[in-house]
Specification:
Blueprint lengths: L1 H14 L5 H9 L5 H4 L8 E9 H11 L1 H7 L2 H8 L4 H18 L2 E3 L8 E5 L5 E5 L1 H9 L2 E10 L3 E10 L5 E3 L6
Parallel strand pairs: 2-7
Antiparallel strand pairs: 1-6, 3-4, 5-6
């Protein structure tokens, strides 16, 4: 079994079908022989990926301790209305909090200074599918960096909320931005 695992790892790394040996190790452990076809080379995908996890209890404590001050600093009016309409608002606020962090991690922009979190809005379409709306300086920086589509996925349970963001970039234009950057 060990020799088969080593062969799979070596082949996957040698052909460039995996980003690193850790990916090959995971695939070999799962017994994947056709690793080149099963696992695309994500390093060549133009864009970025971001993820974040947030403790729902942390958000609930911030909501109790700081109330509307916390909510208005981090969320848009539309996000606040949506989350407060739910049976357990803290779960939905936590998911949006995680999504905003994931989006920032996925954007090809090195931000200088405090982030204007309300410029990243997480909304839902009529079917409940989440989407990202950028505005202000973050939108300007994303456009300059060649950001096209941003996809986001959110999930939550009683204790945690998680989000993953995928950003498609039309070119290799990563930039440094911040509140002082003019367009």
């Amino acid at each position: 079994m060990t020799s088969q695992r080593n062969e799979v790892m070596a082949a996957a790394v040698a052909t460039g079908d995996l980003v690193n040996g850790a990916d090959a190790q995971i695939a070999a452990t799962a017994g994947l022989k056709a690793i080149g076809r099963a696992c695309p080379r994500w390093a060549s995908v133009p864009g970025g990926v971001g993820t974040d996890i947030v403790a729902v209890g942390r958000i609930a404590a911030l909501m109790l301790g700081s109330g509307t001050t916390f909510l208005k600093r981090w969320f848009t009016a539309r996000e606040i209305d949506y989350c407060l309409s739910k049976a357990v608002p803290s779960r939905h606020f936590a998911a949006r909090f995680a999504a905003k962090e994931a989006v920032v991690k996925a954007l090809p922009v090195a931000w200088d200074g405090p982030l204007p979190w309300r410029y990243i809005e997480i909304t839902n379409d009529p079917r409940g599918v989440p989407s990202v709306n950028l505005s202000g300086a973050i939108l300007d920086a994303a456009v300059r960096a060649g950001v096209g589509e941003i996809k986001v996925s959110l999930s939550h349970c009683g204790e945690y909320a998680i989000a993953i963001a995928l950003v498609a970039v039309t070119g290799d234009q990563a930039i440094t931005a911040g509140p002082e950057v003019q367009t």
